Amino acid sequence: MRLHERWLGFDQSLFDVARTLMLESARGYPDGALFWNAIANDFIAGLITRHSSEPDSEVRGRLGRAVLKRIRNYILDHMDEHIDVIALADIAGRSPFHFSRVFARSVGVTPHRYVVHMRLRRAVELVREGRCGLAEIAASTGFADQSHLSRWVRRVHGVSLTQLAA
After folding, report:
1. What pTM was estimated for this model as a whole?
2. Burial bucket for residue 47 (CB in 10 Å: 0-12, 13-18, 19+)
3. Whose CA is closest to 127, among 76, 163, 73?
4. DSSP structure class, residue 60
5. DSSP type of residue 52
6. CATH number, span 66-94+110-166
7. Is the separation of the CB atoms in 100 and 85 below 8 Å?
8. pLDDT by residue, tens only, the chain of 166 residues
9. Residue 24 needs a FRET pair 20 to 30 A away by CA distance; which of 7, 31, 33, 166 works?
């Protein structure tokens, strides 16, 4: 495969993805390595798809149920820790780039989104149980702090943490 030069035109979407990568790197990866990896994969896929001499052939395959179960169990067991795509790819026996693409095809979301979804689901369960404080729930489910958890709850559920607990 060979990249081709563009003498005219400008790929705004590719530029925007590259800018997101640059800002995320410059800020010290505030959204985590899985987010950065998902954006990097988008950049590489866009570069290959729109700027290569040969079209990218569709990579076949999906992850099997047993592999997905092992990944899910790993996430549940390490929810309060940093989870990176390399560890998940190792479980699946794939390279991080290939894993991210096959995972998204198998599950419908990127590994980063899936991990956040699992963390958020567990946090909501704990909030509704009402046995722990919000800061403790955020820490035990892998969110940076209570504010980070609150932003995700509002983004996904459209309500505040306190409204969710009621």
Report:
1. 0.64
2. middle
3. 163
4. P
5. B
6. 1.10.10.60
7. yes
8. 556 555 555 678 888 888 888 888 888 888 887 888 888 888 887 777 777 665 434 445 788 889 999 999 999 999 999 999 999 999 999 999 899 989 988 888 899 999 999 999 999 899 888 888 999 999 999 999 999 999 988 888 888 887 877 6
9. 7
Residue 81 token pair:
């820790």
DSSP structural state of residue 11: -
Q: How far apart are CA 65 and CA 139, in angstroms?
A: 29
Angstrom distance (rounded) from CA 70 to CA 87: 12
- Scanning the structure block, which residue is given the tokens 């995320």? 24
Determine phi and psi for 108, rounding to 5 degrees: 100, -5
CATH 1.10.10.60 region(s) of the chain? Answer: 66-94+110-166
Q: What is the dihedral of CA 13, 17, 22, 27, to 10 degrees?
A: 120
Q: Are residues 53 and 133 in contact, defined by beta-carbon separation less than 8 angstroms?
A: no
Instruction: Give how far the C-alpha of residue 146 lies from the chain's centroid of Cα atoms, to the nearest Å.
Output: 20
In contact, 111 and 97? CB cutoff 8 Å: no
